[in-house]
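User: I'm preparing a small set of examples for a lab meeting where we compare how different chains pack in three dimensions. I only have the primary sequence for this one, and I'd like the structure in token form so I can line it up with the others. Please keep the answer compact; I'll paste it straight into my notes.
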Amino acid sequence: MKFIICYLLLTCSFFAQTHNEDTTITSTSYGIYCGVNVNKNMFVSNAFLIEGKVFLTKNIFAKINIGYYRTVVKDSYRVFSFKYIQIQDYKKYNTVYYDVMKTQYDVFPISIGSLYLYRSSPLNYYAGIDISYNLIDPFQYRTSEKIINEFDSINDIPNVYKNIVVLPNGSYSVTLGAGAIFHFTANLYLDVRYIFKYDNELINSHQILIGINI
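Assistant: Understood. Below is the structure token output for the 214-residue chain.
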């Protein structure tokens, strides 16, 4: 979080200085993107993005976006745990195990960033960076639990069964990207981009997105 705040302050300071030098462009644009997300396990899923941009100079603009994509990690491991069972007067702690086959993450990134635009004809090219906080909804594909033993007290359970698997529900990521813009009219253009996402919790991924901006 401190890194994001510092990034915002530095970016705003730079844009403010640059904006004083060149105020020829003050327009904004909004875009909707769709495409594919691919991770190193070669899992392919849909990716969506809604983005707003504000042009600060002839070649630089800031942006904010929200999106969605799904990534899957092919896990293969066994989890030992326990559960408390109470049925009327029956009260026991059961030790159990199950096998995890894969973990699915639905990811909702909220991002800020900046782009540098290289103007040419008929295409404009750009490179940029985003910093994101990602809301994550995880789901494990696993086998049914198998009961191993039962105990009267939690203190009797071996420590190997007391490990708790915690899946992330949030993460931070840095996205590097490049793309090309083709203008249909002055206010309508096609945007094609490639991005690489580095995440501190999830598997890194690549995305190819195509969007329409107005």
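A couple of notes for your slides: The first helix runs from residue 2 to 21. The CA atoms of residues 27 and 55 lie 6 Å apart.

User: Perfect, thanks.
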